[in-house]
């Protein structure tokens, strides 16, 4: 199976847009069922599949996961998104949707800016 060929900048921007529009809020139809960061958005290669059709290692987000966490069941949930080193898994275990959305959006904005700056430097030297 081919690696995820989406532009990582677009993936992160779409995820930020999804969060800012309340994407991880509980569904009106299934309010008892929590949503899972990254897995329940189009950022996930396996979104919409009832099983894992694609290995997580094919996902663009794997680059943000520490190498020792890449073999875990949901590697993207081990991305450290706070300055204190908290991961998505840590924040989801707190069951605080607002904090997860706030911290996730902050992390996404930071990564988006880093990628834009890196690309601008490359373009300036080309």
Quick summary:
With 126 residues, the chain is mainly alpha-helical.
Number of domains: 1
Order of helices and strands: HHH
N- to C-terminal separation? Answer: 33 Å
Number of helices: 3
Radius of gyration: 15 Å
Structural class call reads mainly alpha
User: What does the largest sheet look like?
Assistant: none
Can you describe what's shown?
With 126 residues, this protein is mostly helical. It has one domain (8-125). The chain contains 3 helices and no strands. Helix 1 (8-20) packs antiparallel against helix 3. The longest helix has 29 residues, at 97-125. It is globular and about 50 Å long. The N and C termini lie far apart (33 Å).
Keywords:
126 residues; mainly alpha; 0% strand; globular
Topology (SSEs and partners):
Blueprint: H1 8-20, H2 88-93, H3 97-125
Helix pairs in contact: 1-3
